Amino acid sequence: MSLPTARQAELAPQRKPKNQFWLSSIGFVAPGVLLVAVVLYLPFLWTTYISFTEYNGLGDPEFIGIENFRDMFADPAFLNSVLNTLYWVLGTIALPVGLGLLIAVLSHGLPNATLFRLPFLIPYALSGVAVGVIWSFVLQTNGALSQALVFLHLPGSELRWLLDAPLNTFVMIGASTWQGAGVNALLFGIGLQSIPKEPLEAARVDGASGFTLFRTMTWPMLAPLTTVVVGLSIVGSLKTFDIIWGMTKGGPGRVSETLALTMYKETFINNAYGLGAAVALFLTVVTVLASILYLRRQLADSRSI
């Protein structure tokens, strides 16, 4: 016999009203949204407001419209910072990513491959300032590199590695490569291990080997990981600060500044908070746009495959 209808209704699980479920969801999401708003969105809005004012950190900001942006784009030092930042973006994509991929490919499949990658990974444990101090000792005038070149009777000992632009920017990109290539090699090594062996074996049977095998099979299957690594490199290069500060502090003068250093100097050294905020806003917009354009292009390429 079946239970009475009233008894069945009493034993059936009670469904929460839709409004109650919605309120519960809001209760779970609200703390995270509030935290992001407090630590990210509110400072961004305040920085945006300050960029339209003249403010030295004391008193009340004075609204001056777009004067800070006019002064920013009229300053040759700022335009040089934009050029140096572009050097950093291109150099960080080509060198740490390219070298990391090369290390991963050459060590892949070797016995104890991790031991081959470990020496390249150790510099990543150092802070950017520590890397800057180490390479400043190596590259300073009459430093370790110049003395080694003299001892080996090789050209280049007369070069002022950290004093002449854009040479100083290029050698600092090299120092950043020394720090970052190892972690990229680790990421690419993980990606190589996740590639299924069957397609590679089939390609070898068809006669593919060496660079042809890498170009036609391995590299396309690494595309999703490459998108992540290159994307992180672009964002990291746009906000590079610590290595440059540790090696040249943007000098001599301002010839090796990037946008991140210009923002810092204008704000905390020159006490031009409005101009510093304008540079910060410009850097934020450039970073977001670069990330969106790069990811949209990569996603479009992946859908077309």
UniProtKB/TrEMBL annotation:
Q: Which PROSITE patterns match?
A: ABC_TM1
Against InterPro entries, the record matches this protein to: ABC_transporter_permease, MetI-like, MetI-like_sf
Q: Which GO terms describe its cellular component?
A: plasma membrane
Q: Which SUPFAM superfamilies match?
A: MetI-like
Q: Which residues form the ABC transmembrane type-1 domain?
A: 82-294
Subcellular location, in the record's words?
Answer: Cell membrane
Which Pfam family, giving just one, matches this sequence? BPD_transp_1
TM annotation in the entry: 21-46, 86-106, 118-138, 170-192, 213-235, 272-295
Q: Name one GO biological process term.
A: transmembrane transport
Q: Which UniProt keywords apply?
A: Cell membrane, Membrane, Transmembrane, Transmembrane helix, Transport
> Its membrane topology, per UniProt?
Multi-pass membrane protein
Name the family the entry cites.
Belongs to the binding-protein-dependent transport system permease family.
Looking up PANTHER family in the UniProt record yields: ABC TRANSPORTER PERMEASE PROTEIN, INNER MEMBRANE ABC TRANSPORTER PERMEASE PROTEIN YCJO
UniProt-recorded name of the protein: L-arabinose transport system permease protein AraP
Gene source species: Occultella aeris
Recall the taxonomic lineage recorded for the source organism: Bacteria, Bacillati, Actinomycetota, Actinomycetes, Micrococcales
- Gene symbol here is araP_3
